Amino acid sequence: MNRATPRLRALAALPFVLALAAHLLVLAFLHDRLPDPLATHFDGGGRADGFTSRAAFTVISTALLLSLGAGWTLLVRRTALWGAWATAGFTGALLVLLVRDNLDAVDAAGVSSPLVNLTVAAAVAGLFAVAGWALTRLVPPEDAAPVAVDGPRLPLGASEVAGWTRATGSRPLTALAGLALAATPAVLLLAPWPGALLGLLGLVIGVPGLALARIRVTVDRRGLTVRPALGSRPRIRVPLDEVAGADVRDVSAVADFGGWGYRVRAHRTGVVLRSGEALVVRRAGGREFAVTVPDARTGAALLNTLAERHGKV
User: Which end of the chain is less congested by CB atoms within 10 angstroms, N or C?
Assistant: First the structure.
């Protein structure tokens, strides 16, 4: 197991601890200025149409932040730390803004919540995401030891330079991610409390899902890189000095990885957009990384050649 895992998990839990602390402090200091019940859901015009007692709101909001934090802490990877921070920032900001909207209200029925709250929460999420991305440098990659590289080879002269890249995508994943994002505003605005908070799951599912719906896989002097086809972040990279070998394997999205997208299983991870041909990299630490991509054999052969050459430098 990666020695940095405890540190990574602590950094993934940290933003949720901060968001929860800020939320509970706001509730404690402003307790006497809040109505009971609170207005917790609003119609399309921003007028209150759902209400929850202060005690129930405290319990439900705390449970929401704790459950999101537990999920991210358990499943986070170094390249996705920014996502944990963005999720905590967005959720925490919405909860604090909801408390602010109720402040000094004589009757919760008269409370209104402007749609700009979503923009403010998104801005906070962006700032948190930048912080999470910056903190990634505190988590070192897996230690690598010199190993013998096995697997197919691509003939390459000593002075020759080569690279390989392929783009691939998943229409079902694109459709599902798009639907999740499209449904989020409607659920947040129209669903009764506390079901409205399920709309946040649309962002948690839709944003990374859309980023992974079409990817570009590249093998070059830096190793193996997997990133969104339309952007440079988030990305997954396996440097050459971590490559113990690469090969091609037929994988089943459901049987081998439990579904589509970025998948985490015991001793292996993967970006799985379909069943079929996958480039599988055995890392120096013993774990495997797989990505489903056309012409995987050429990519694997070049990666082995480059890794072997790198080990002799």
Answer: C
